[in-house]
Description:
The protein is mainly α. It has 2 domains: 1-75, no CATH class; 78-242, Farnesyl Diphosphate Synthase (Orthogonal Bundle), CATH 1.10.600. It contains 13 helices and no strands. It has helices at 2-15, 21-37, 44-56, 61-75, 82-92, 94-103, 112-128, 130-137, 144-149, 164-184, 187-190, 194-216, 228-241. Helix 5 (82-92) packs across helix 7 (112-128). The longest helix is centred in the C-terminal third of the chain and has 23 residues, at 194-216. The relative contact order is 0.10.
Amino acid sequence: MAFYNFARAADDVADDGSLSVEEKLAILNAMAAQLHNGADAPDMHVRDLVSSLAVSGVTSQHAQNLLKAFMWDAHHPRTADWAALMAYCDLSAAPVGRYLIDLLGGCEGGYRSSDALCTALQVLNHIQDIKDDRHTLDRVYVPSDWMVDSAISETDLDGSECSPALRKVINRMLDGVDGLLDEAAPLAKTIHSRALAREASGILAIARKLSQRLRLRDPLAGRVALSKPAMAVHFAWGALRA
């Protein structure tokens, strides 16, 4: 919870439309400095996380990387290409999985499968919020070069339905997601914590189903998501397989 509250507080700074880019960066840099300096941090969320990390022995680097992601959002509201999106997710998504793995006993063979699952979840979320991100936060996570290749612009994200060209770009992003989910498939076998392994396998099953649904439904027409019963069923199936 200390890690979550820290991440939530930093994310709120990055998403605060009343703050300038300079003000956001000043607050986030101050949080990074306090996290580095350790005890007696003025920020309550940083102070709580520092105390938690001292007890758990988990590195502060995962939290520092999250701060870098929020700074990235302030600096780069557009995404140049797929490689840039993957680099962003390496800071914004992967640290969460890495933190949980470290907290709960580690894993075999490094973080590759965890990084793949967390990145896939992040991209799925970007596709779900493709319209709202542009309108509310003035951010576009769709690779710009893919939009250029398909002869579309950001205004195509403002419509009530996807154009065929935008649908092609979204499907291309989902192809990348499905490749990441394939990379994530071995994750449950590598995690030392059985409970976390079941959790990861259940989430992987949900992510696969959500990817399928996003291919069939239009994220501009309304947010595409799984119902709570559907999530429960797919999670249970994935957990049982683990």
